[in-house]
Structure formats: C-alpha cells, structure tokens
Design a protein that fits this description.
- By secondary structure, the protein is an alpha+beta fold.
- Helices cover 41% and strands 20% of the residues.
- The protein has 28 helices and 30 strands.
- The chain has a 19-stranded antiparallel beta sheet, with helices on both faces.
- Strand 8 (232-240) and strand 9 (249-256) form a beta hairpin.
- Helix 9 (218-226) packs antiparallel against helix 10, helix 10 runs antiparallel to helix 11 (373-400) and helix 10 (295-356) packs across helix 12.
Amino acid sequence: MRTARVALLLPALLALLAPALVAGHGDFSPRGSLLYARAKSLEGALKRLGGEDWVALVERALATRRKRDFDESEPIIAELRRFLPLAGETEVTIADIMVREPNVQLVAAISLPENAPKEFSAEFRDWLVKEVEVKPEPTRFEIEEVCFVLKNSHLYFTIGGRAEAHVEDVLAGNTSDSLSGVERFRKWSEAAKGDVVMWSDMKAWRTAIDRLGERMHRDMLAAFELVEWQKWDVMTASLDLGGPTSSLRLQVDLTFSEPLERAGAFLKSPGAFELSTILPAETLMFAGVQLGNNHLATFEEMLRIFHDVDQNSQGARLRSEIEWLKEQRQALTDELAALEARKAEKDKDKDETAEAIQPGSSEEPLPPEEEDLDARIADVKERLGYIESQIAENEQRLAEFRTRPFEADREARKDASSDAEEFNDGLTDVLARMGVSKEDLAQAIGDEAIFGLLGDELVAGMDMEDLFESRWFVQVEMRQGYQSLKDKMLDWVLGRKLGPNATEEEKQQARERAEELLFKKVDGGEVLMPSDAFTDVVFFFGERFLGFAPDVDVAKRVLANSLGATARGPAVPGGAAGGTAFAYADLGKIIKNAITEELGRDRRNLNFPMPFFDPVKVLAGGLDVGVSLSAGANMVSLTLDTAGQNSLRPTLEILGSELELDRAWRHDRNEVDDLADGVRRWVETNAERLSAMPEGERAAARKALTLETLLKEGFFTPTDGLRSAFDPAMADRFAAMLKARGDKLGDGAQPAKGFSESGYEWYGLPPYELDGTSGRDYWEGMRDGWLVCAMKGPWARGGRVVVLLNGSYYRTAWLSEEDFNALASANKAGNRLPEFAQPQVKVPLWAVRRQMRNQKWESRTLAERLDEMAAAAAGEGRQFALEFDGSREQNAGAKLRELMGLTDDDWLNVQEPQNLEIHANASLITVRFKKHGQWYEVCLNRNAEGRARMTEKASWME
C-alpha cells in the first residue's frame, strides 16, 4: 500500500513541473500521441504569477503537514526542492489511454541547466530502499509503472511500458517514431507562440476511445456524435500567462476535416453583440449567441437535430432497460433458489420431528416458523413472471424499432410524435390563434440573443440558488416587423381585438385571459405578467428587443438600462463582446457571493467557518472573464480573456492561512469533543442517582458539576488542559506544535493534569432535566440551547468554540460572538434559548417574494382546513371563531395546533407560524403571512348560499 501511495504521489507532485508548463521539440512524444503540450520556464512563470517569494508562501502551506503526512511526503518534496527552482522548458505527452492498467501512457521531459544535479540524492535513494522497497540507481528508479530518469540535462518521467521504451529509444538517438517527424506537427510547433502551447490529434483520440468499448458510456458517445466529432481534425491551444495585474489569455482552435452539418445550426456567422452594451452594469454573467439570418431554416434544423437525438437514444434506452431487467431477473432467480432450499430443509426437519414422536406420546410438535416461505416463494415467482414479460415486451419493441426522419406535418405522421414535433405543433397552434405565422416571427427576429443574470449582493438568509432562479433574463434582438408582430400578440393575449365573427366562447376566453394578466408601461418599454402575487414569468418589450424573466424587477432593470442616457453594460474583457457566441462572468462577485452564502450557512448550523477570507481584498482588481467562440467553415476558435487581478499570490497566502487555522480548529475540536463526551457519560452514569433525589437536591447536584469533578471522577482526561490553539497567549506553543508536526500544545506527550492555563470557562449544566424527546437532526443548528463550556475569548474567527447542550445532544459547536452573547444571557436568566435571532438586514423585495412563495400553498391549505372546521361547527349548531397571532406566542406552532384541535397524527405543515396571523369566523377566513415588512394574504369568503371564493392579496400588489 505504501508503494502504491508513493507511486501516485510522485507524478502528482511532479505535475507541478510538467502538465501545466511544457517545453521541447516533440522528440519524446511518440507518433499517434493524443495530446502534446509544452511551456516556457516553470520557475519564471511562478515568479510572474506568485511574486519573487512564491517559494516562501508554498513552504508556509507545507509547514502545516501532520507528522504522518510529513514522513511520507518530505523526502519527495526535499528532492523536488533541488530541481524546482531550476526547471526550464518542459514537455508533456499523453501517448495513449487504455482499458488495462496503467490506464494512461504518459511522457514528461523537463529541461535542466548545466549546474543542475546529475544524480538523485543519496538520502532520497536510501529512503526509496527503506520505505518504498525499490532499488534505485543514481540516475534512474522505477515505482510500479512510473519511471524516473536523469540524463542529458533533463529529468524524465514516464507512465507505462510503451512510453518508457520510446524515451529509451530517443535517448539512444532514434527519433524515427517521434511526433517531431510528422510534418504538420513540426510546422505547427515552429510557429506556435505562448507561455503554454498544446497540440491534440482528434483522430488519435477517436481511435483510443473506440478501443475502450463498453468502458465509454453510450450517452457520452451519443453526445460526441451530436457534435460530429468524427469530423474533428486537430485541436491546438496557446496560453499567455500575463502577469500579476495583466490578463490571462487562452486561445483554442479546432479544425475540421470537412464542414459540420448538425452543429452548423448552432454556429452562425461571427458578429458584434450590440445588446451587451445596454445590459445593466450589475449583470453578473451573460451568454450571447448569433442567430444568423435564415431563422426559419435554423429553427427547423434544430428541431430535426433534437428529433434525431431523441430517436437515436430510444434504442439505447431500450437496451439499457433490457440489461437492467435481466439483472433483476438474475437477482430474483438467486433469491428463489435460496428460498426453495430453505423450504426443503424446513420440510425435512418437519418430517424427522414427526417420525421421532410416537403415537400416543404426550410431546407436542414444535410450532411452525413465523416466516411463511410459501408466500415468499409465490411472491418471488410472481415478480419473476412480470420481469420475464417486461423483458419479452422490450425485446419485441427493440426488434421493431426503426428511426424515422422529422415530420413537421402532423397529418402525415404515422407514428407517435417526438418531443420536437409536439413543440412545433404547439408553437404553430399558438401563433395561428394570434393571427401570426412562423414566417412572420422569423422575419421579426434579429441577429442575436442573450441570456443574462443580475448580480445582486447576497444577504443573510439568501442562497446563490436565489439568484440563479430569480434574477435571470433572456433578450432577443428584434427588427423589421417587430411592432406589428408585438401588437398582434398583445391583442390576442389581452383580448383587445376580436374579429366580428368571434363566438361567445372565444369572447369569454379573451375576458378570462385579460383578467389573469397585467400589462403596463414602464421606463424603457412595457411588461406583461400574470396578475398572481407570485409570478412565474414576466414578458418585457423594449424598443428593439423582447425578453422574459422570472421577476418584474429584473424586467424593469433591463428595460430602464436600455434607455440611451443610462445604457452602459458590464465591463467586458477586451472592450466588446463578439464572435459566434460570447460568454462573460464577473468571477470576483460570484466568489464573494459564494463565500457569503457559505458563511451564512456555517453560522446557522453552528459550524466553524471555512473557508473564511475577504474576496474583496483577495481580488482587489476584480476578476472578469470573457469567452468568445468564432466559427468558420473549417475551424472553430475559442478565446478566453481575464481582466483584473490574476496573481496566484493571494491564493497562496489564503492556502497557508487556511491550513494553519484548520490545524488550530482540529486541535480545539478534539479537546472539546472529549469534554462533551465526558459530560454526556457523567450524566448517563449518574442518571439513576439523580432521579432518586428530591428536585432541589437534584438541581444542586447538576449545578455542582465542574471541570475538576469530571477530571477527578475520570470522565475527562484533558490532553492539553483545555488550552486553545486560537488563544493569542498560545501563539508560541501553536507555532512549536506546527514545527513539531504534532497535535498538542503541551510539552511532551503526557496528558495535562489540570486547567491552570485553560482557554475555556465552565458554565455548567442546566438545573432541570434534559428534554430527551427531540427528534430533529443533530446538525440542524440551534434548538433549545444551553451553554456548558466556552472559549474565553472570541479568537476563533470572531467567535467561540463551545460545548453546547443542543436539545438532548452534547455538541461541539462554533458560535459567532453575537450568538454567544445571546445564548449566555438567556442561560444566565435560567432559560434555554430556543433559537438564535436572524441578523437584521434589509432583504430586497424580489428575495422576499421568493422566500414567501411556499406560503401561497401553505396559506391556502390552512384556509381550507379552517373552512372545514367552520362547516363542521355549523353542522353541530356551534359558533365558529379563531384568532391567532404567532408573533405573540412563545411556541407558535404548538399554539396553532392547540387552537385547531389537532393531534400529533393530524398533518399540518406551517414552516414559520411565528409570522402568521389568522382571523376566522363562519363567513370569512383570513390567513396573513408577514416577513421582512411584507405580507401575503389569502381570504376565503363564503356567501349566504354557501358558495366559497378564495382570493389573494400581497403588499407588493397594492
């Protein structure tokens, strides 16, 4: 096992020298290789990206290794230190991929200067002999399939026998089998420029993947077929690393042996994305595509592509279903055989027992086993029969299955419609009802479409999911005929104009559509949306574009920003969006939002916050990324350009800091985990004794429990005397702990005997009994909390590590200073704290609506249940009335169930009853939910005839 770990670790560490940065002329790359890459000086590149002292930053991270990790990796890292500062041009080649091990054949060649070591160090070779059990030579050693060689001012390493044999041939002077002998590779290599360059032969990739056979998933192969990868010829790339404040630029070119057909529907002529200049400046990311000129042909071609993909996948799905059914059949067959064997054995035992009992004997036969084997055998046989019928049915369907071409004419179809055909039918019908044809629509659409996402700042209680689901929008450029098309669509949707021959049914349908929609003018255009409090989609119309979004605020922002006086757009790298397709992302803000979300989740779940850094400081210049795709007849080019700060230095600084604090957290957590376990065992051990005491004595006994008591009675043995690695007073000892690769702050390995330097203070157990009925998840966060022990100061990232009585669990947790103070105050008054108050922040209206969406169904369900109660009371001749204000109740959920007369078996799900108000009587039921200064209300009104009508209101609709 040790040998295997080292065999994997060495290439991984040397990958710092090779896969990312390569140099050479292709001699060490075999003909037919899958991928070749080379780069300039590794050491020089690291200085450019990480600064002159990048080595010190890496060493800081390495210093945090634990002893076992240090012992296993330090000899390798020490050897790398001899070569890493001298590493020059490097070349890496993936020669092949295979089913058998090793699964990859790889060659790497790293050039070294004349003053570089000519042999591996004696210390490293001794370690290889003792720990890895290999016999190294001064300039060569091999670990399993990985071979390392020092020769001709190069360090070589190979994986796989074919790769090793090729390197030996080249070192012997034979390059006839090298990639450098291929003319087009040689021409590319001579012209290639960039800090890193790459060449990939796509024909070689197809051959290698074909050899993998069933190891390659059929869905992946189907995806390759969709993009016509059999026509891919050569992929090349060039990467310019830029510098600490300049852009990183990647250029990837893919050439084809012949023009694409299917993929051509998605690769339109390159152009400028004019819509990007009028996007809101706070756009977090967007992706644009060129639509070309012949939209109708493009639409039909895309329908055909999706139809063909669906048709081709049906056969694959049937084969997968048959394989799965056969596996089920085998499992049931094995189960049936086992059951019948058990039944035979049971019958044999029954016969032997009957023979042993003589007639007239007083002995009674043994009772039958509870297990009914006959019933189980019958059930398995029935399931086997069903599986057999399903296999036969699917095999028949597979035998009869034939793919067919896309058919737009529904009358001409003989088989069931595909999804693409049904979509085409539905669109045709809708447009026909509007008096519009697909030709009209195609003529009005312009040259580009954009999908975007607004980048609002996350606040407490919001997740990244909130942004991705509520802040997106789609814009489509429009041109000649747009106004006429828009008027016809709106006339039909809003029921504004009906023909003279419209029937009463059509007029009624128009009135109903109009009642369900809102249409209004806003800055920059108009919006059309459902009159529902929680809209699912909003359509918006600008002067030269139309679009849709999930929230009216998004639509208004996009429209307002399209006005000439305010249009500015996001800061796209390169200055303008262009190409066949273009994508932009503000990675700096995305990272910031992701960390904000994670920190909020850690606080809610009482977890130590990691990672924990300020992305504003790390990415002081921001980090914007633009990706452009340009397509021609025989080539597709992708360009990635970053703007803002690209330095690795902040990342290396964060890495070292995080690893150090992870060691501190691990130390404190282990100490406090042991303490929490000791408290739990003391309570369990003394439970019987405590229960026998009078209540006052029991409370006094619980209160008398101290750290010293736990130590004296053997329930807790402090490793470090509860010293905290986060305590500034322990800084020197913490540094010594890291230097020694140990896990203890104390001197030596002996457990501490006392708490003279303890970084924690004891608060004690609550004077009353535990509530052992809590069934909620251990990691769900705060519930019914009591502080048992806590770090003395807020040294752990502005918070404290604590032992928490969390419901009925003793738990090690992290509390922010604010939450710690709230819990300590409640406990001081003799009360458990049910939960922590959420930080008071102003949540934007769109986020409030998203958070309250579930209340629509909860409130309607609650109103219906109350209506049933009112009807039952009327049937019994009783008056019905119910008043409830959850904000005034200590346990709002329990109070609501009590008022409604519900038992534990009655289902009722109200997530936040403390935000609920109810006013109900026999004729009117009002359920209102309030949150963040907004409210949503459902009213159920029953008239004198007994007919009920439910309506809704919301503060944002007024």
